[in-house]
Design brief:
single chain, alpha/beta, Arc Repressor Mutant, subunit A, D-Maltodextrin-Binding Protein, domain 2, 3 domains, two-stranded antiparallel ribbon, 10 helices, 45% helix
Length: 287
């Protein structure tokens, strides 16, 4: 069996064209790399290079070997990744979400059902979440678009609508609804960790008017101490998080309303029936 390091060094020579350049990039001596290439040729029983003075050139067989070497190393890495992810799945539940609010709600449910496992969570965009489900990096994902993918089991979870938060004496305070176009001249406080909402706000509003904060504590302090506008949502207000000195006005743009979906692999659906049953029950209670 050919050792992995020989294939890695071989591909280094292929990529960097010369032994000296490859040796420098691989942080080994040129004589050591030359011995490795000779050893690889001996193990394969065929020449991979033609050597002319200080030059080393791939033969046609060498080019074919390089393609197989890439695949072999990729398969080896896939094996390592799969085994590590499987081991982690035995001891933890990893959930990814496109936004923070639905993640906090599902986390509570997962803690109740998987109290003996470590719960891991993070924000990511929908494409990364779907890819993560398929390669078993995530066990669950919260998406804001309904995926068309037969490999996934998807259940509607909850809706969320953006609200615009303003001081009670603001000129817009008596409006029944607003649109993003109404906000283009306002200075707006925004928390960076809002998931996909950040991209929507950056696309709809002048970036120079967004005062983006990395810490929620700082955002709250600024909202309380200034007359700047900010965002909230209907579901956040339902949790009791409401400033009595502010008004909360709905946004009428279609992008301001979203439906979240909880997804897992179809092959895992039976294992997580309790989670999806609980979500269905909660949805019925909200109706």
């Amino acid at each position: 069996m050919i050792e992995t390091y020989l294939l890695e060094q071989f591909l280094g020579v292929v990529e960097y064209k010369t032994l000296s350049a490859a040796a420098e990039e691989l942080h080994i001596s040129q004589p050591s790399l030359s011995r490795s290439m000779k050893k690889l040729e001996e193990e394969l029983g065929v020449p991979l290079f033609t050597r002319e003075n200080s030059k080393i050139i791939l033969t046609e067989t060498g080019k074919e070997a390089a393609e197989y070497a890439k695949r072999a190393l990729q398969a080896n890495q896939e094996l390592i990744d799969h085994v590590r992810l499987y081991e982690r799945s035995l001891n933890s539940i990893n959930i990814g979400s496109c936004a923070p609010f639905p993640l906090s709600q599902v986390n509570s449910l997962l803690q109740e059902n998987f109290y003996d496992k470590t719960l891991l969570s993070e924000l990511a965009d929908d494409d990364k979440l779907i890819k993560g489900l398929k390669n078993h990096y995530y066990q669950f994902a919260i998406l804001h678009e309904l995926p068309d993918d037969e490999a996934l089991f998807v259940q509607r979870y909850i809706d969320e609508s953006l609200l615009f938060s303003l001081p009670k004496d603001h000129p817009f305070a008596d409006r029944k609804e607003l649109s993003f176009s109404d906000l283009k001249d306002l200075k707006i406080l925004l928390y960076r960790g809002v998931g996909f909402w950040m991209k929507i706000c950056e696309n709809k509003l002048p970036k120079e008017n967004l005062f983006i904060q990395d810490r929620m504590e700082t955002l709250i302090e600024l909202i309380e101490a200034t007359a700047f506008a900010s965002f909230s949502s209907d579901v956040i207000l339902q949790t009791g998080t409401k400033d009595p000195d502010r008004v909360y006005i709905p946004l009428k743009d279609k992008e301001s309303c979203v439906t979240y979906y909880l997804a897992c692999l179809n092959s895992d659906k039976k294992k997580y029936d309790n989670i999806f049953n609980s979500i269905r029950s909660a949805a019925l209670r909200r109706m």
